[in-house]
Design brief:
heterodimer, A: 232 residues, alpha/beta, Rossmann fold, 7-stranded mixed beta sheet, 3-stranded mixed beta sheet, 24% helix, 28% strand, globular, B: 335 residues, TIM Barrel, 8-stranded parallel beta sheet, 13 helices, 9 strands, 11% strand, Class_I_gatase-like (chain A), transferase activity (chain A), hydrolase (chain A), PdxT/SNO (chain A)
Chain lengths: 232, 335
């Protein structure tokens, strides 16, 4: 029970301070993997200590940062990021960024962990929120598009890796015909702002919400490609 | 097994959900509404998927009424997941009387510019032009609210016609499903706004939960009859019966004034809370706001609730729910 390496289970935590954590839990519980996946809702440092990997869900990133601070979770989370696998979706992606644009007045607390600069609400307010079909590298059944649900989504503004950082691997971009009409200045398909999913080292970042679909391929990808390899 | 846990060592981790009277399974969530992917298709905005999706992102959070950018900043710093921009909080609407309308769009814009969290605003029941104006202003959610004076005493707004999502109040299951049928992507209890008295919010949540429990064991024939009795569209009632919960996110609203009130509504099965007059009509708004935010996250942890409930200053003055109360029964507005 105490040693994770001999355990046949993989324990995946979901940061449950605020936001769509139950949706991630439902997705993980529906997966059938070789290894049993135990899901833990994380609200305290003790909850976090049980986990082999963590998902930071969508929600409000300012709210989550404030709640993490008052629950004494900020430092344990930063420590966790240095050793274990973390996936951030939407607000989670903001918290994993090195720096952020359009932050609240007085700045916003971040966990860091992935060498990107993101812009909050990068596509605009809720009326600009959208769904778009995405081609995601490495997903099961790759040719079948995955519905990206973008809700007041952050935009990857710039990749800012330092030489010592692990390489960044882009796994999905918004196709040109799916860019919001307000974004007329993105002419180049390699513009960082078209990136919607990427990996760096152990970590995974998506600016959209795979947990808001009925398609569990992204969660399967996370377990298969990120979590299980980190445990062997 | 290997870790020695003495009987007297309190566990610091999150306790499992106690099976209280009103508790519902924490794993039950409103279903996804995203579309099936279309190959090579273009993007789609204003879908029901992104409307209900934003409500899902607000879950486990507190939405606070604010009347100016300063209050909005206090709310954001306290950890509000959204703010409701309005000219007068419900307690003042009650006290001052007169016709309560949509707030000044210029004031709403100032609040949008002051914070990064979603900004909501209220329109009168049935006043679809106020809604068109708020959509043009760029608010993130519209509350078609009984707190304002109704503009139409028979019809609600056709909310499917808008790109901006709507939240509506409900006292029972029939009312909630009628609003969803009209396009609401998010439902809240009506409670009794501006009273600081949680009793009506509890009544409405209990009524909805009880009707869902009844529906969940009904046969098809019984569901047709029940749909007729509660004035709900059959297909939505059937979906509710299958899901054993409302098909959209459901918050508590109307009378929540303390961290304990907020945790009570969460334990009764709500997905989050609205706090109107309860914060900025109290003695120490910043502190109380922060405590209520924490109470909604740690609603199942009485030890944490005890710590955060202390030393918050004066709560807002409460009102008893009486037929001739000042400002009347707002919950009775809406059809």
């Amino acid at each position: 029970m105490s040693s994770a390496s001999s355990s046949p289970n993989a324990t995946v935590g979901i940061l449950a301070l605020q936001g769509a954590f139950a949706e991630h839990q439902m997705m993980l519980q529906r997966l059938s993997m070789k290894r049993r996946i135990v899901v833990v809702q994380v609200r305290t440092a003790d909850d976090l200590a049980k986990c082999d990997a963590l998902i930071i869900p969508g929600g409000e990133s300012t709210t989550m940062a404030i709640l993490a601070r008052s629950a004494g979770l900020l430092e344990p989370l930063k420590e966790f990021l240095r050793k274990k696998v973390v996936w951030g979706t939407c607000a989670g992606a903001i918290l994993l960024s090195k720096s952020v644009e359009n932050a609240k007045k007085g700045g916003q607390e971040l966990l860091g962990g992935i060498s990107v600069k993101t812009a909050r609400n990068g596509w605009g307010s809720q009326v600009e929120s959208f769904e778009a079909p995405l081609q995601v590298e490495g997903l099961r059944d790759t040719s079948r598009p995955f519905t990206g649900v973008f809700i007041r989504a952050p935009v990857v503004f710039e990749l800012v890796p330092s030489p010592s950082d692990p390489p960044i691997e882009v796994i999905a971009r918004l196709p040109p015909q799916c860019l919001p009409r307000s974004q007329t200045d993105i002419a180049d398909e390699s513009d960082a702002r078209t990136i919607v999913a990427l990996r760096q080292g152990r970590h995974l970042l998506t600016t959209f919400h795979p947990e808001l679909t009925n398609d569990n391929r992204f969660h399967e990808y996370f377990i298969q490609e990120c979590v299980l390899p980190s445990l062997s | 097994m290997t870790t020695p846990t003495g009987a007297n060592t309190p566990s610091l981790s999150t306790p499992t959900v106690p099976h209280g009277v009103g508790n519902v399974s924490s794993s039950s969530v409103a279903p996804s509404r995203s579309k099936e992917p279309r190959d090579g298709g273009s993007s789609a905005s204003g879908t029901f998927g992104v409307k209900s999706g934003l409500a899902q992102m607000l879950k486990g959070g507190v939405i606070m009424d604010v009347v100016n950018p300063e209050q909005a900043r206090i709310a954001e710093e306290a950890g509000a997941c959204a703010v409701m921009a309005l000219e007068r909080v419900p307690a003042d609407i009650r006290a001052e009387g007169g016709v309560a309308r949509m707030s000044d769009p210029a004031m709403i814009k100032e609040i949008i510019d002051a914070v990064t969290i979603p900004v909501m605003a209220k329109v009168r029941i049935g006043h679809f032009v106020e809604a068109q104006i708020l959509q043009a202003v760029g608010v993130d959610y519209i509350d078609e609210s009984e707190v304002l004076t109704p503009a139409d005493e028979e019809h609600h707004i056709n909310k499917h016609a808008f790109k901006v999502p709507f939240v509506c109040g409900a006292r029972n299951l029939g009312e909630a499903l009628r609003r969803i049928s009209e396009g609401a992507a998010f439902v809240r209890t009506k409670g009794e706004a501006g009273t600081g008295n949680v009793v009506e919010a509890v009544r409405h949540t209990r009524a909805v939960q009880s009707a869902i429990r009844q529906a969940s064991v009904m046969s098809e024939e019984e569901l047709y009859l029940f749909a007729k009795e509660i004035g709900a569209p059959y297909h939505l009632l059937k979906e509710t019966s299958r899901l054993k919960r409302l098909p959209v996110v459901n918050f508590a609203a109307g009378g929540i004034a303390t961290p304990a009130d907020a945790a009570l509504m969460m334990q009764l099965g709500c997905d989050g809370v609205f706090v109107g007059s309860g914060i900025f009509k109290s003695g120490d708004p910043a502190k109380r706001a922060k405590a209520i935010v924490q109470a909604v996250t740690h609603y199942n942890n009485p030890k944490t609730l005890a710590e955060i409930s202390g030393d918050l200053g004066e709560a807002m003055v409460g009102l008893n729910i009486e037929p001739d109360m000042k400002g009347g029964r707002m919950a009775n507005r809406g059809w």
